[in-house]
Amino acid sequence: MKYLADFRDPGLARALLAEITASVTRPWTLMEVCGGQTHAIVRSGIDQLLPASLKLVHGPGCPVCVTPIAYIDKAVELADQPEVIILTFGDMLRVPGSNGNLLDAKARGADVRMVYSVLEAVELASQRPDRQIVFFGVGFETTAPGNAMAILQARRLGLANFTILACHVLVPPALRALLTSPTNRVNGYLAAGHVCTVMGLADYQEIVDQFQVPIVATGLEPVDILAGILAAVQQLEKGEYRLENAYQRSVTTTGNSHAREVIDQVFMVCDRIWRGIGFLPASGLAIRPEFAAFDAEQHFRLRATAEPDNGCQAGQVLQGLLVPSRCPHFGGRCKPEHPLGATMVSSEGACAAYYRYQGVVATNEG
Amino acid sequence: MKDEITGFPRPRQGPAAISLAHGAGGKLSARLIEEYLLPRFANQHLKRLEDQATLAISTGRIAFSTDSYVVAPIFFPGGDIGELAVNGTVNDIAMAGARPLYLSLALIIEEGLPFTDLERILDSVQKAARQAGVAIVTGDTKVVERGSCDKIFINTSGIGILAEDICLGAEQIRAGDKIIVSGSLADHGMTILTSRHRLALENSLQSDTAPLADLVQTMLAAAPNLHALRDPTRGGVAMTLNEFAGQSKLGMVLHEESLPIHDTVRSACEILGIDPLYVANEGKLLAMVPAAEADALLRAMRDHPQGREAAIIGEVSTQHAGLVTMITALGASRVVDMPVADQLPRIC
Asked: Which region, left, alpha or beta, applies to residue A115 given φ > 0 means left and ψ of -120 to 50 means alpha?
């Protein structure tokens, strides 16, 4: 923990802020891709301390936020089946589907449990052979290795009552989609350090080469984030575009090869709908056919459903086109206690971050 | 060995677990009281075994409070549900500046609870009551079917007395008051969470459950103009300060760097993505005190075993009335909103 404290050191942070301020001569817009970075920025107040001409916009990197409503609905449908115990991370319980969320299902009598690790679900499955244990697994490349390991472990244990409702998404296809959008106004990207730790940097080099934008692999502590911002700004000011690693204590060029192998063994790339953003080809991970016995969608023969529209502007927010507090529903129809979309729920959601750390003051003063 | 009249097993000799008959009002109920409860809590009021306790009241005013305890797991590092049930109500009474004197103890037990667990809990109740200087003067025991409660639920109500001139409360808070916390944040909630999910963290966490009545008396002596006290249990410091902000219509300003948080708790919070400001405490209090008395109060608190890590963590302002804000370690300011829902259910 003392180690972590260095990356929150106010003195180091202030020195980096001064260097950023001294470097900026023109207006720039940077996107932090990861929702964890968004929360760290707003929580520590980095956005208030940057020079006015340097804007941060929030990216699509909140796994809870981009999980399609259809998957929430599938999870609720499964939860309502009496033989099923559904387990998932805390944030997923409150995300609204088209017909309530998992907490509503729990209140109706469904057995819905919050866990911190997919391995708790595997353990429960081996203890409760009389019940179907479903883990609702979402997330980027960071949670995929854990879920893959859980499936391998369940197979090793011969469990016939363990499945995963998997809705994994991949960062690089989302970045490509943002970069090809005609409304894109982002000059440089802070790539999600945790994702790069698992996957390495090869995909990002291709994007830098193709789109000629700076991408900086950036960590999640205030000093990490400021170091990433400084690196991106220095490139932009010099007119350069390079892939840079500002999170070297964690990210290597090749990533975690063991984790990548496990992902490849269990998952294959598939098309995905992203909540609020829409259909992105080859942007997700699906469970391979040889592991179909552990795939809740196949095991329970779940139907595909269309994405409903409730007026939520999260898609604009997730693409960096709309500041949460400017959304017409922000703080009115949409609050953490009655959210329209997942961005107002998740601990990594940009709208929740604004509401929790800034929005009320802004509203109060405005 | 079976009871000759009821046919049910006897508590001491035979069964290892509570059965429905122990709550049915018959012989087994009587034995439960005589063998398990009375020996631990015997006092002149309880011994009479009337339907109520009759208590003589001196001059002054009464502080009266009640709370129910449903924590899971019932045993956790640093305490258990029995100790929590005494300290929680004792502390609620103490926050008025009162001396807690009497408690009621109501047990709702799920059939099948091992007697060894019940004894362990009752021993904790006894020990905590003795430490807090309160007598258990009335009580009740119910046994419910398996699945109707989770092992054991406890309700305690308590009475304390306070002098006429002590008047603590949110309405007394003034701009310029200092905000003092009596010790480290989030110990209890993170202990419950990590033991519930059996997360093996490098250093074991301990609940901070403790009686605060004696600390409060020390504080009242050191700071006669103390404005308000509250113990930041569910919802943590963020919840309590938001309540203070709303009721006083003033702004609460925290300083991130002043918050006392143990490294192990901070690590656990980081790993689990939880903000320690929103996590429950069970042996801590927040004090709102005029700035002129703050240093004397802090010294007195730090000399007391329950206040060794006390710290001034902020002050009351007329700005951002009704809100809690925090000056971050980097020098920015952000809102500390009221929590939407418990981050963790059934922590107390």
From this structure: beta
Mind listing the domains of chain B with CATH numbers?
20-162 (3.30.1330.10), 170-335 (3.90.650.10)
Q: What is the pLDDT of residues A216-265, one digit of tens each?
A: 999 999 999 999 999 999 999 999 999 999 999 999 999 999 999 999 99
Question: Are A115 and B267 inside 8 Å of each other by CB?
Answer: no
Among residues A237, A297, A322, the alpha carbon closest in space to that of A60 is found at: A322
Nearest-angstrom CA–CA distance, B292 and A247 = 47
CATH code 3.40.50.11740 for A1-301+309-316: yes
Residues in chain B: 348
Helix (H) / strand (E) element for A216: namely: strand A215-218
Q: Tokens 């309530």 identify what position?
A: A100
Q: Which of B197, B257, B334 sits opposite A45 (nearest CB)?
A: B334
Give the ipTM. 0.78
**B335 to A360: CB separation less than 8 angstroms, yes or no:** yes
Interface of B with A (CB under 8 A): 197, 199, 257, 263-264, 266-267, 270, 272-273, 320, 323, 325, 328-335, 337, 340-341, 343
Question: Which chain A residue's Cα is nearest to B261?
Answer: A1
CA dihedral for A335, A340, A341, A346, sign (positive or negative)? positive
pLDDT digits (tens, 9 = 90+) for B2-54: 555 545 555 454 458 999 988 888 888 888 988 999 999 989 898 888 889 99
CB pairs under 8 A between A and B: 73
Output the CA angle A262-A264-A265, nearest 5 degrees: 65
Contacts 24+ apart (CB under 8 A), A44-48: A44/A8, A44/A13, A44/A222, A44/B328, A44/B329, A44/B330, A44/B332, A45/B328, A45/B330, A45/B331, A45/B332, A45/B333, A45/B334, A46/A13, A46/A17, A46/A222, A46/A225, A46/A226, A46/A229, A46/B330, A46/B332, A47/B332, A48/B332, A48/B333
Beta bridge partners of residue B9, listed in sequence order: B2
Compute, in degrees rounded to 10, the torsion defined by CA atoms B116, B118, B122, B128.
90
| 3-class SS of residue A229 | helix
Instruction: Give the global pTM.
Output: 0.85
Which residue does chain B place closest to A223, by CA atoms?
B330
User: Where are the domains positioned within chain A?
Assistant: 1-301+309-316, 317-365
